[in-house]
Amino acid sequence: MSDEEHHFESKADAGASKTFPQQAGTIRKNGYIVIKGRPCKVVEVSTSKTGKHGHAKCHFVAIDIFNGKKLEDIVPSSHNCDVPHVNRTDYQLIDISEDGFVSLLTENGNTKDDLKLPTDENLLNQIKSGFEEGKDLVVSVMSAMGEEQICALKDIGPKN
């Protein structure tokens, strides 16, 4: 064996930590599931009885958490499904650039400048009008499977 120390600095992510397996029969409404490679929130689950040969099946109806599209999947209840790790983080809004990117203040005092304004018209208008009025705004950013998007807005009062 050699005495050398090896230091690997990885810039890429293998993707293993983006999801975890969970038995289909244990996934409930308002939980999360990956359907067709997209992180989704489950809005409806129905389980069919076992047939003469085979397993009970779970029919999932879910909404993509980033683009709002409805997706469906049918999985045997004893099989594993991928469940995304979904995180919500709150950031204070500092600035909105002309090209639609927002500048956010992180907890440790750094800025996060890689997020675009949300595509949801209602939320987009709330953020823009609140920012123009000089209000202190906190945005909730949902992240899953390497994607991030602003999903909610809180008004914490006027700027001092």
TrEMBL record:
Residues 1-12 have a biased composition (Basic and acidic residues). GO terms for biological process: positive regulation of translational elongation; positive regulation of translational termination. The keyword Zinc does not apply. Gene3D superfamilies: 2.30.30.30, Nucleic acid-binding proteins. It comes from the Eukaryota. It holds the Pfam family IF5A-like_N. This is Eukaryotic translation initiation factor 5A.
